[in-house]
Amino acid sequence: MRLRIAAIAFLISTLAVGLCWLSLQPLLARLLDVLHHLAAPGGPEQALLVRTARLLPALLGVHLVAGGALVYAVLYLTVARPLGRAEGLVEQLSTLRLELDRPLDRGGPLLSRLQGALGRLAGALRDEQATTRRQVSALQLTNERLSRAQAELAAAERLATVGKLAAGVAHEVGNPLSGILGYLSLAQARAKGDPQLGDFLQRIDAEVQRIDQIVRGLLDLGRSGRGAATDVSAAGVVENAVRLLGKGPDFEKVAVKLELPQDAVVRAESGALAQVVINLLLNAAQAMRGEGSILVRAERAGGRWSLKVEDTGPGISAEAQAHLFEPFFTTKQAGQGSGLGLAISRHLVESMGGALEAANREEGGARFTITLPAA
Fold this sequence. Notes:
The chain has helices at 2-38, 44-94, 110-190, 195-222, 234-245, 270-287, 318-323, 341-351, and strands at 230-233, 253-259, 265-268, 291-301, 304-311, 355-360, 366-373. By secondary structure, the chain is an alpha+beta fold. Among the domains are: 2-94; 227-375, Histidine kinase-like ATPase, C-terminal domain (Heat Shock Protein 90). A five-stranded mixed β-sheet has the order 2-4-5-7-6. Strands 1-3 form a two-stranded antiparallel ribbon.
């Protein structure tokens, strides 16, 4: 590098001094000629002029050397040394975690080497940025999965807590309830002559029956499963559920449409699956306030069947979406629901190796999807 700088400095100095001397040569020659004519022949002035003429080439050489040294110093301090430092920094950057396609060149002009090094460094930085973006995307996806897993774990812990609580108090609550129901039966038999008292006793009996259903629901949450999974026809389970509910007051003005292929056979426990389907159909009819339509259809994706229950009701609010499958959460009016139906349904579906999800339809209304392994 220094040899190149020295060569460039000598070339610039030669051009500059040469042009200067060439421009001054006619003037110097005329001046020496005039002094030569004015000086006395053989005198000291004549000898001085001769020595001066002989010193002119030496002065030219001194000017060339001095100019070259000055230009070299300027180029080295302002160009060569900063470029050398820049090259060193590029080499240091390249030794960090950047994988260059090929090592830095050691030959050729400095600027060419530096340009090539910067180009490769820029390419390596672009690759690193792309890798970083991919890693950030992967981390975001992992965080989302972790958040979902944490939410599912929290829900599972709540269900486990409820199950343990139910197992501990079931007998303590069940035995008094059985006694209360027995005494209510005796009281109703003796109060046949008093309509008002009979009405009061009937209301008490209904409330006690509701307490008994809540306790049974808690017990269902605490159980791991009801029986072994078998090959179950999804179409048959849904048709039986629709036939059972069709005569009820909630379905008088509800049209139920089925799109279920006969080959939709899943691995499940028929009683548990029927309970889940009945619960979803009842929820859909009640959400529509007894007027609207329900579509039940099945789709296969790989080795799983998806059974979808869609209604034309108001859909699921954002607030309810976050707590929909929590025990005792309900959007129904007081006294119309215990808030255990969807929690029990999800528990039953998951115990059969499936999943239960809820979402809103783009056309309006809600969609509940039961996913189970195909037979």
